[in-house]
Amino acid sequence: MTALLEVRGISVSFDGFRAINNLSFEIGECELRAIIGPNGAGKTTFMDIVTGKTRPNEGQVLWGEGSKSLLRMNESQIAQAGIGRKFQRPTVFEDQTVAENLTMALSAPRGPFSVLRWRPSADSAARVAELAAEVGLAEHLSRKSGELSHGQKQWLEIGMLLAQDPRLLLVDEPAAGMTLAEREQTTTLLRRLSEKHAVVVVEHDMDFVRRLDCKVTVLHEGSVLAEGSLDHVTANPEVIEVYLGRG
Ligand SMILES: Nc1ncnc2c1ncn2[C@@H]1O[C@H](COP(=O)(O)OP(=O)(O)O)[C@@H](O)[C@H]1O
Ligand SMILES: [Mg+2]
């Protein structure tokens, strides 16, 4: 099996501090993967590198069947290639309805800011309804997005990313600020999405990670400390020492 995404020996330093240190790992097609690790381990920086926001000083980032180098692409080309990223703070247009937000995302060419240049298309309504159903917002199509709960806004943003049909979705700390019920629905959603897309989730909430029920990568000081099932990595003495033991 060839990987969908492979990072190979990447390092990045900020003012001499190695935030990512010879990091290597792979994500498969339609794989669901959780990334955990202490604050400052490099989890967000890893996502910044994959999406082209931060350039590594060394190493390779390879994408898709042809192992294309993402390091030769800019942020919008990487988005075009099929990598979508969800930030922690939802960035939906609060004055627009759920349907309007999804319509804009659907009509826009892939890319971080291209959503602002949308042209409505005639047959988008059915796809908008489908996207809303996929993220559990079918009943809320005509509501102003600003009226949604925090969790619902996060799902709307995931729906907007799905409108671009990404092959890989990067999701940074989705559980933060969500109610328990919302967190449970989010794990169900992410598991379902991974049937058709690869999904990489950074998350601290261990109950959330357990419900994802997927392979876990533990980052520490910019490298992979352990990898495997949640039970496997949480039994690792080094993981307990650097992460779990801190309470
Ligand atoms: N743009 C930046 N400039 C300087 N230092 C940064 C920058 N981005 C991240 N860092 C540093 O790199 C380390 C890793 O950060 P980050 O990837 O955000 O960790 P995590 O998401 O695992 O908590 C931290 O020490 C952080 O302060
Ligand atoms: Mg982070």
UniProtKB/TrEMBL annotation:
Keyword ATP-binding attached: yes
Every ABC transporter domain range: 5-246
GO cellular component: plasma membrane
Keywords linked to the UniProt accession: ATP-binding, Nucleotide-binding, Transport
InterPro entries reported in the protein's UniProt record: AAA+_ATPase, ABC_AA/LPS_Transport, ABC_transporter-like_ATP-bd, ABC_transptr_urea_ATP-bd_UrtD, BCA_ABC_TP_C, P-loop_NTPase
GO molecular function, one term: ATP binding
SMART domains: AAA
Annotated Pfam families: ABC_tran (PF00005), BCA_ABC_TP_C (PF12399)
UniProt KW Acyltransferase keyword: no
SUPFAM superfamilies for the chain: P-loop containing nucleoside triphosphate hydrolases
PANTHER family: CONSERVED COMPONENT OF ABC TRANSPORTER FOR NATURAL AMINO ACIDS-RELATED, HIGH-AFFINITY BRANCHED-CHAIN AMINO ACID TRANSPORT ATP-BINDING PROTEIN
Protein name per the record: Urea ABC transporter ATP-binding protein UrtD
Gene name of the record: urtD
